[in-house]
Amino acid sequence: MPTSHTAFAADRRAILRSAILLVGGIAIAPELLAATGPTFFSPSERAQLDLLCETMIPTTDTPGAIAAGVPAFLDTLMANWASPKSRAHIQGVIASLARAAEADTGKPLAALSAAERADWLARRDSALLAAKDPAYRQFKQLVLTGYYYSEAGATQELRYELVPGAWEPSIPVTADTRSWAA
Amino acid sequence: MTFDAIVVGSGMSGGWAAKELAERGLKVLVLERGKSLEHGADYTDGLSPWELHQYGMVSENEADAEYPVQSQCYAFSAATKHLWVKDSDHPYTTPPDRPFLWIRGYHLGGRSIMWARQSYRMSEMDFEANKKDGHGVDWPIRYADMASWYDHVETFAGISGEANGLDHLPDGKFLPPMALTPPEAEFGRKVEAAFPTRRLITGRCAHLTAPTKEHEELGRSACQYRSLCERGCSFGAYFSSLSATLPAAQRTKNVTIVTDAIVHSVVQDPKTGKATGVRVIDRNTKAGRTYDARMVFLCASTLGTAQVMLNSRSAEDPRGIANRSDQVGRNLIDHLSGLGASGIYPGHADIYHRGRRPNGFYIPRYRNVTEPADGYVRGYGFQGRILRDGWQRGMSEAGVGADLKARLRKPGPWRVSLSGFGEMLPRPENRITLSETNTDKWGIPVPHIDVSLGPNEHAMIAQVGSDARAMLELAGCTDIEVRKHYGGVGLGIHEMGTARMGHDPNTSVVNRYNQAHDVPNLFVTDGASMSSSGCQNPSLTYMALSARAAHHAAAFLKEGKI
Ligand SMILES: Cc1cc2nc3c(=O)[nH]c(=O)nc-3n(C[C@H](O)[C@H](O)[C@H](O)COP(=O)(O)OP(=O)(O)OC[C@H]3O[C@@H](n4cnc5c(N)ncnc54)[C@H](O)[C@@H]3O)c2cc1C
Ligand code: SF4
Questions:
Q1: In this predicted model, what pLDDT tens digit does every residue of A108-124 receive, in sequence order?
Q2: How many Cα neighbours within 13 Å face the side chain of A143?
Q3: Which residue's CA is the closest to the ligand 2 atom numbered 8?
């Protein structure tokens, strides 16, 4: 329905503006947050977090976690969203993963090559998930949310349509098919 | 000035009452306790996930401190936070071992903004149930009294669905149905082959799949398949008070809407016994004032209406208005929910879906209809869907790095979920009362809600789970997980029964026209009037009852009967 699409586009800015008023602080791009937003983590925690996020979701033919603003997203969440328990979880995961990396490989995270880090985190990840480690599960949940709901994650890595306009219950899967972000 | 009618509440029921009364030429005052909400401008449906505050995640401390109840509703997020009450501002109590989760929104349009839009008629079986098995009181109406009103509200609201020819889930005036996915259709065939009297049908939902002129005249347009509905829909593509009934009411120029007006109680003339209007407390200034009218419609939602009635105490009616039967506040019912099962549905790896269908399939009730039940009366239906998993599956699966990205880039397996909604029996001891000592910010007594499940409910819960598992197993599903009842009534968000309809003024609160037995110009048309709940989502029935009651009330007024 082209007419409603146009009407919608014209309305969209007004809607955005009112949404900001209503729910407060909406529509702040992650890049902005990185530049001006909270810095909950200490510089060394943040450095570890960057490495962990980028190892979990590396840059490939699409942006990785850092470019998608995932560490910045976690930083904002810890400052504004997290309960004391969640903060303890996430800070604990960063510290314990950093310690484990060194214990497992003999080298600090930053000294490992990207391939070594990926290999090490894959082993750690399956062990922690198998053990149903609640802090690590929350960490992975937040990293994935921060990535796949980011604009880069949703639109470059996956596919997202704000207004699909139609419901197609069955379309063929092809080599190009990507999952919907939402 | 004296209005012809005051409608308390602007939600699903109040919107209908206002529209129908105003269209009959009555001067109507709608009183809404919450803030005003502007259709379109106050919605957040233009925002993509990354544009939402914290990608939609409400801060944990804020949720715990201010929204401990509301945040348990699936539709609560940063995009909808402004549509839920702050629990911290609106206290109620329960016995410590019997939680009740009261999910509500106080704003123009009420929960018609956030509802999930599933719309099913009740049937003759449902209206006869109380009489047949002796639970609750007999409904003084039958399906034949409601059929044309269902037609009326469906046509105006716009309900998409298909005619299935089932006596116990009557067909209606439908807009074209939303298609099932091939696995859903196949699952239906498997279920129907194994259980010949069970049916899997397309969900019936209040969405404009093909708007009519009547819809378009109100500025409503076709559904765009976004599933952002609980944020409000700028297309007006699903039915709400803001998209449909209130604009239709306002078009008559007979309606005045006042928001931020908390109805404290109904004023009753001790001489005539009639209602003369309502007392209101201004939400912002806390000042009190009174509005006069020739009749009053209570549409403040099941618990809100009971609260107003119980608080309308006088020397003549110390237990509250229209409460000679002592049934006001009693027989509180919700639907058993949170039950069911999910699993991975086999095959169909070569197809996917596009668009976000705001609907699913429905398996109408069969227990105590075509199949016997395991030691209980009444029954349940299932809502469900079979769609492919998204990236969220990666949160609990092992895997990191480029492999993780490559895996989650592709759609996951098809996942089936079945959610049972079960009928609860009306029992007088399940009730809302008002505190004698505690009041809220506005000086209104704090409600106390005491509801527990009985043996019938417990027996039913067990079979919902085993039925769901059996259907998934026969379809070859794997990773089946059965979900038990959540343990707190309220989360069905289908509260009903606190001013039940019945023949006898000694055992019921309103008559067959939703008119209070004791106060002829007082009408209760929301879920409070339900004598039993069926297992269908109830709002369509509140709409039909409200429209029907408004029709009769307007006639009574004109005939000088009230
Ligand atoms: C997430 C969710 C999903 C749902 N899904 C479905 C579904 O799929 N199908 C279905 O049938 N139902 C569904 N429901 C339930 C549906 O929303 C309710 O049944 C319906 O809104 C009830 O209509 P109502 O008019 O009684 O109350 P509401 O719509 O809640 O409106 C009541 C209004 O009265 C106002 N009010 C209360 N007290 C006072 C007072 N003292 N003075 C003045 N105003 C007052 C309130 O602020 C509110 O605006 C769902 C609800 C939710 C929240
Ligand atoms: S799915 Fe349809 S009704 Fe829901 S928000 Fe989108 S357009 Fe509106």
A1: 999 999 999 999 999 99
A2: 30
A3: B233
| Ligand 1 and B241: CB distance under 6 A | no
Q: pLDDT for B276-296, tens place per residue?
A: 999 999 999 999 999 999 999
> Mutation test of the interface with chain A: which of B354, B389, B393, B410, choosing the one with the most A Cβ atoms within 10 A?
B354
Task: Summarize the confidence of residues A67-72 as an average pLDDT.
Answer: 97
Ligand nearest to the CA of B205: 1
Residue A92 corresponds to which tokens in the numbers above?
């604990």
| B49·A130 Cβ contact <8 A | no
User: Tokens 């484990």 correspond to what residue?
Assistant: A100
Number of other CB atoms surrounding residue B346 within 10 Å: 15
Ligand 2 centroid – CA B343 distance (Å) = 27
Could you give the CA distance from residue B333 to residue B425 in angstroms, rounded to a whole number? 7
Secondary structure (DSSP) of B52-110:
SGGGGPPPHHHHHHH-TTGGGSTT-STTTGGGS--GGGS--B--TTS-B------BTTG
Rounded distance from Cα B291 to ligand 1 centre (Å): 23
B55-93 as b/e: b if 16+ CB within 10 A: bbbbbbebbeebbebbbbbebbbbbbbbbbbebeebebe
- pLDDT class for A33, splitting at 50, 70, 90? very low
